[in-house]
Amino acid sequence: MSRTASAPVLRGRRWWAEVGWRHVVGVVMIAVCVLPLVYVVSASLNPGGTLTGSNDLFRTVDLQNYADLWGRGYGGWFVGSLVVCTATSVGTVLMGSAAAYAFSRFRFTGRRGGLTFLLLVQMFPQMLAFVAVFLLLLSIGDVFPALGLNSRLGLVAVYLGGALGVNAFLMYGFFNTVPRELDEAAKIDGATHGQIFWTIILRLVAPILAVVGLLSFIGSFGEFIIAKVVLQRPQEYTLALGLYYWAADERTARWGLFAAGAVLAAIPVVLLFLFLQKYIVSGLTAGSVKG
Amino acid sequence: MSDPQAVTTAAPPPTLGGGTVTPHARRRPSPGFFVKLALVATVDALGVYGVLAAAAVASWGIVAFLVLALVVVNWAYFSPRALPAKYLVPGLVLLLVYQIFTMAYTGWVAFTNYGDGHNSTKQDAIASIAEQNETRVEGSPTLPLSVVERDGELGFAVVQEGVVEVGTAQQPLAPAPDATVEAGRVTAVPGWDVLQFVDVAGRQDEVTVLRVPFSDDPADGSVRTQDGSTGYVFRPTLAYDEATDTFVDTVDGTTYAPSDGGNFVSADGTVLTPGWRVGVGLDNFTRAFTDSRLSGPFVQITAWTFAFAFLSVVTTFALGLFLAIVFNDARVRGRKVYRSLLILPYAFPGFLSALVWRGMLNEKFGFVNEVLLGGAQVPWLQDPWLAKVSIVLVNLWLGFPYMFLVCTGALQSIPADTIEAARIDGAGPARILRSVTLPLLMVSVAPLLISSFAFNFNNFSLIYMLTGGGPNFVGTPVVVGHTDILISMVYSVAFESGTKQYGLASALSILIFVVVGVVSWLGFRRTRTLEEI
C-alpha cells in the first residue's frame, strides 16, 4: 500500500518483514524475465550453433552469426519491415489525427453517426477477416499489381484500413482536451482550417501522436497473420515471417543465426520502448493492448 | 492528404448539407492549393488507370467502386462546402475497403462453398473441365513439332498438311507462311525463337503441360507433346451441351448434370472437378457442429480458446497486481531499476519471445530440459496437457509486465488517505486489498481486462509460433491440434489443410466475431456500472 517516504527507517527483522522480502521477489522475477533474453544473446554469439550447442551460456563469443545474416535475405526483411512499419505508423498518425480533428472541431450532419460507427468498428478486429483480405487482394492484384498479394504497399494499405477504427477514438478524446479558444483566436486572426490543423492543433497534441505512432509501429512490427497471408514470397517477408521460418524447423534450423537475427530485430524496439516508456504506458492505459 | 492551405477563408464552419458558401471572389490560390491540386491529380490519374485496367479484366465491382471514389474525392477537395470531408475521406476510404468491405465479404463467403475446387464461376469451370478431360485421338497423325518462344512465352510450331502453324496456350494455331522448314521440321519462324533440344530439356515441365488449341472452339481439341519434337492431337472426351446444360462423355455416353453443390455430377454419383461457387446456405455453420469428424475437435478447441483467454487474463493480472503492490512501497530502494527490468519481456517483440521459448522448451535439446531440469526429457510442447500449460506459462511471462504497468499506474491514483482511513478502522492488509484497493482499481482496469480477454481470444501468433497448434488431432478433415484456438483453426481450415475451404473458414470467423463482439459489448456495459460506484 502506498505510504509516504517519511516513514521511519526500519532495521533487522522488521525490515525483512516489511521491505526485505520485496527485494527477494524482485530479484527472482528479474531472473525469470531476463534469463530467456540472456539465453538468446548467448545463442547469437555461438557460431554455427544448434539448439543443443546453445545451452552453455557464453561458452564462445563470436560475431560470426551476425556477419552471416546478410547473405540470407535478412537485410531485405529488416529494411522491408522498417519501411512497412514506418509507412504504417506515419499513415496512421496522419489519417487518425485528420479524422479526430474533423470530429472534434466541426459540427456536421452524420457526426454523431460517424462516431458511433467508429466505436462499433473498433470492436471487430480486422485480422479476423484475413480470408476475405486474401481474396480481396487476389482480385485487386489483377488491376493494381502494386496493391495485390506479395506487395508491401498492399500490406501497408491493409494495415491502414484497420487503423482508423482503433485509433480515431483515442485521438478524438485527446483533441477534445485542447481548448477551442485557441483555434478560434487563430481563426479571428485569419488562419485557415488547414493552418489551424497543421500549425496549432498538431503541435498541441504531439504526445498522443507519438503514442499512436509508436504503438502502431510496434504493432505492425510484430503483426503476423495478415503479413503471412499477404506476403508469400521470401523476398518480401517481414522480420516476423522470416524469423519464424528460420526458427520453425528445429531439425535444420541454424539456431545461432536465428538468435542473432532476433537480437538485431529486437534492439531498436526495446530501446524505443524503454526510452519512451512513460508515454507508451499512458497510451496503453488509454485503451490499447499489446499487439 | 489534407490540404495544408484551405480554399475557404475565415468563415463559420460550413456544414456537409448546405452550410455557408464562401464567395468565389475571395479565393486566393496559395502554395497549399497547388499541393492539393497535384495530390488530387495524382489520385485521379491512378484512379482512371485503375478504371481502365479493371474494365480490361471485367472486374465491374472495382470499376464501380473506383468511379464512385473518384467522384467523392474530387467533390471533397474542390467543394468549399465539404470541409469535414477533406479530413475524413482518406481514412474512411481505406476503412471501407479494408475493414468494412472485408467484414461484409467474410459474411458473403461464409454462405458459399468458396475454396479449392470451387474457386470461380460456372463458365470457368465448364472451360476448365473441357480442357482437362482430353485424350489422345487414336490413329490420328503425329505432327512434326518445334517448341518456340517469344518474350518468355512458350508456343508450338507444327507442320500440318504441309502448312506451318504457330500458336500458344492463349492463341490457337494460325498459319505462319514465312517459316522455314528443313527435313519436315520447322527450324525458323519470324518473330519467334525456335528452341534447341537442350533448351527444351531445360524447360521440360512447362513443355509437357503446354496445350495449344486448334481453334477457339474447345471441341476441336489441341496439340500436346511429350518430347518436344512430336505433336499429338488431343480431343475432349467430355462435350458440353449448352441446350441441356450438361456434359456428355463422348466415349460411353454418360451425362453429367449440374448439382446444387456446384459440380457436374453423373447419375451414379461421379463428380467432375473443378466445380464453381454456389450459395450453400447455413451448411458451413452447421458443419462445425454436425460433421462428426469436425464437431469433436471444434468443441474442444472452443473450450480451450475460452479457457486460454480466461487463464491468460487471470494469471497475468494476478501476478501483475501482486508485483505492483510489492513495489508500490516507497521504502523499497531501486524501484526504478526493478520496474525497467520487469518490463523487459513486454518490450521484447512478442513473436520473438514465442520463438525463443519454443527453442528453450524443446524436448531433447531445449535449455529448460537440458540445463534447468538437469537433462530431463519433459515433452513440454508434445504432450497435449503440458503444451497447454506451457502456453499459459509463456503467455504469463509475456503478459504480466503489461498488467504490472497498468496496476502500478492505477494504484498510484488511489488516494493514500483512503487506505489510511481503512487502516485506522482496523482493517488488515488482506481486508484493505479486498474491500478498498481492488474495487477502486477495477474502475480503471476492468476495461483493459476485457480488451485483454478479447486480444488473447485471438492471440494467433503466440499459438502458431509456440506449438503450431500441435500436438495434432488424428482423423480430422482439417489439420488442427490440441492447442489450436479458434483463430488458428480458421487459418488452418483456410490455408493449411490440403484443400482450402474459404467458406467454412469464413463461417468460423463469423462465430468468433460474434463471441468477441458480445464480450466487448458486455465489457462496455460492465464498465459503465463500475464507473457509477
Automatic annotation (TrEMBL), chain A:
GO molecular function, one term: ABC-type maltose transporter activity
Superkingdom per UniProt: Bacteria
Keywords: Cell membrane, Membrane, Sugar transport, Transmembrane, Transmembrane helix, Transport
Classification via InterPro entries: BP-dep_ABC_trans_perm (IPR050901), MetI-like (IPR000515), MetI-like_sf (IPR035906)
Membrane topology reported for the UniProt record: Multi-pass membrane protein
This protein's record includes keyword Cell membrane: yes
PROSITE patterns, alphabetized: ABC_TM1
SUPFAM superfamilies assigned: MetI-like (SSF161098)
Keyword flag Transmembrane helix: yes
Residue intervals of the ABC transmembrane type-1 domain: 78-276
GO CC aspect terms: plasma membrane
GO biological process, one term: maltodextrin transmembrane transport
Pfam families: BPD_transp_1
Transmembrane segments: 21-41, 77-103, 115-141, 153-175, 196-218, 255-276
Location(s), subcellular: Cell membrane
Family label: Belongs to the binding-protein-dependent transport system permease family. MalFG subfamily.
Name of the protein this chain belongs to: Arabinogalactan oligomer/maltooligosaccharide transport system permease protein
UniProtKB/TrEMBL annotation, chain B:
Biological process terms in GO annotation: maltodextrin transmembrane transport
Span list, region Disordered: 1-23
Main location per the UniProt record: membrane
Membrane topology reported for the UniProt record: Multi-pass membrane protein
MF annotations from Gene Ontology: ABC-type maltose transporter activity
Transmembrane spans: 33-52, 58-78, 87-111, 303-325, 337-357, 389-411, 432-454, 474-495, 502-524
Keywords from the UniProt entry: Cell membrane, Membrane, Sugar transport, Transmembrane, Transmembrane helix, Transport
A GO CC term assigned to this protein in UniProt: maltose transport complex
InterPro entries: MalF_N (IPR035277), MetI-like (IPR000515), MetI-like_sf (IPR035906), TM_PBP2_N (IPR032550)
Domain ABC transmembrane type-1: 302-523
Subcellular location: Cell membrane
Biased composition (Low complexity): 1-10
Chain's role: Part of the ABC transporter complex MalEFGK involved in maltose/maltodextrin import. Probably responsible for the translocation of the substrate across the membrane.
Family per similarity comment: Belongs to the binding-protein-dependent transport system permease family. MalFG subfamily.
Protein's name according to its UniProt entry: Maltose/maltodextrin transport system permease protein
Origin species: Cellulomonas oligotrophica
Lineage per the UniProt record: Bacteria, Bacillati, Actinomycetota, Actinomycetes, Micrococcales
